[in-house]
């Protein structure tokens, strides 16, 4: 059975994996509330424009990579947590990995993300 949490996580990955700038904008609007916040060790942002710009920036930094869910989301009430990896389409390597905690609004869209990075590429 698909829950609102599973649906939110699917829309989250659709936003991060959208291929064109316009697709990212549309996917962000579908996944996040207008005033959603997104905080991880690299950014502390809010709103569709800033979330869209961050996703587009990651695409430019990691061309040919895709965010993939690792395992299954764990959820209760209005929150869910899940692990992910950023995977190269060319060789399957995953230089970046982490986990996120999302909080959902009443309409099922994400109102807040707290992200944590578990693995980063060597500098």
From TrEMBL:
Pfam families: SnoaL_2. SUPFAM superfamilies: NTF2-like. InterPro entries: NTF2-like_dom_sf, SnoaL-like. Residues 9-112 form the SnoaL-like domain. Gene3D superfamilies: 3.10.450.50. It comes from the Bacteria. This is SnoaL-like domain-containing protein.
